[in-house]
Amino acid sequence: MTTFEGALFWGFLVVYGIVMYVLSPRSKNANSFYKGADDQGNPVGQWSLTASIFISWIFAKSVTNAANLGAAYGVTGGLAYASYWLSIPVAGYIIYLIRTQTGARSLQDFLTSRFGRLASLAFAAAILIRLYNEVWSNTAVVGGYFGLPGEWEYYAAAMLFTVFTLAYSLKGGLRSSIFTDVIQAFVFVFFVGAVLFLIVPANDTSVLLSNGEFRLDAGFDLLLVALLQMFSYPFHDPVLTDRGFVNKEKTMLKSFVVAGLLGFVAVFIFSLVGVHARINGIDAMGNAPAAVGQSLGLAALFFMSVVMMTSAGSTLDSTFTSLAKSLAVDLPRLAQRAKDTLPSVRVGAVVMIIFAFAGNLPMFAGTDILKATTISGTMVMGLAPVFLFYGFTKWSPWSFHLSFWTGLGLGVLLAVGLIPDGWAIGDGKYAMLLGVNAYGFLICTGGFFLPLAFRRLAGRSLAAGEV
């Protein structure tokens, strides 16, 4: 960076952090800190909740991945990644059913009532791993606009961004997170529009929107993976699901549907950044937004960095608040060591501080941010039958464990390369991922229903013996 460029980028980072801290409200009680209510106890409004869901799920790594896939496969790659956002309405509808049919106040409450305390503990472990990954995978993207991995600018920017986000998260918890999400959503939309203003006129629109092929070896296999994972992927992300319990059921459902559709459109539109790189022969180098920004000049690169900071900030503050709720509220209740009263704000603050720094350790080791989505989504495929078919059982711990642990095992085997080649569907880059998710969904579903089938058969045998 030149002196002027450094002043522009570092200056915006500092101003961004100060403005977010000044504007974010301070939580005066635990109900506000952990549940997002205002000082009078009123729940989050519908449009604030919609904006929060919309922007908090548009991770910095997500828009980067969408653009990279656009560069690799054209609009097919963009549609593949954007399809993950269709899982938001799916999650909203299932949470709506859970709340109205079971009266559960959280997913942990629901799982405990239907599948037992061990099921809730396994689920809690899965979401904590997910939240831990969210820290480094978003701060690393921001650092990439200030330097390369291994350079001090890269790590300094990522850690400074972490400190700023932590500061306003400590100030207001979930209330602060949702409030700043609204601001970040508007900033994100404005600067994405600015980026498109630079990209669209530089291309033939028909070529830009038609580049790509719907073949298994051209990104369509990843699109099918996303459509399969939409029934499991959202449930291991408390950044999303925590927001399913902060307002009335119908208000929540409307917010989830609108936010999911808006997210799908926004992510697909941003993937056109990668399609532009593909059409114009720009080497994405693993970071299509940065590569395109550099090719279009300083203004475009600055716009890209603003998009990344706002999307990363909205996700990171939500991650901190979800970690605080999971470790300070949900787990103690699960261990039966806490009553229904919320813990003090100080407990959640300590959790945030610990994970703000521990969560960045993988960034210093170096990781692949796309794997944080595709692999983790595969490992939790066993959650799909649990949430889709819970209505078939009132109490069946084995149904959860046979489904969840089977999915986790298949995900681990995929990660270490021990799945047989015959499982692959097609011959594209994601052929094995598609095969494991398709066959795995069927196997996990079979595991979920197996205890129910045994119970019914045993009941019939007992009845026949009595006769």
What does the model show?
With 467 residues, the chain is mainly α. It has one domain. The radius of gyration is 22 Å and the shape is globular.
How are the elements arranged and paired?
Elements: H1 3-23, H2 30-35, H3 46-56, H4 60-73, H5 75-82, H6 87-102, H7 107-115, H8 117-143, H9 152-199, H10 205-210, H11 220-229, H12 238-241, H13 249-279, H14 288-296, H15 298-334, H16 345-358, H17 361-365, H18 371-379, H19 383-388, H20 397-415, H21 431-466
Helix pairs in contact: 1-9, 1-15, 3-9, 3-13, 4-5, 4-13, 4-15, 5-11, 5-13, 6-13, 7-8, 8-9, 8-15, 9-13, 9-15, 9-16, 11-21, 13-14, 14-15, 15-16, 18-20, 20-21
Catalytic activity: L-proline(in) + Na(+)(in) = L-proline(out) + Na(+)(out)
Subcellular location: Cell membrane
Protein name: Sodium:solute symporter
How would you briefly describe this protein structure?
With 467 residues, the protein is mostly helical. It has helices at 3-23, 30-35, 46-56, 60-73, 75-82, 87-102, 107-115, 117-143, 152-199, 205-210, 220-229, 238-241, 249-279, 288-296, 298-334, 345-358, 361-365, 371-379, 383-388, 397-415, 431-466.
Which short descriptors sum up this protein?
sodium transport, Na/Glc_symporter_sf, Na/solute_symporter, 467 residues, transport
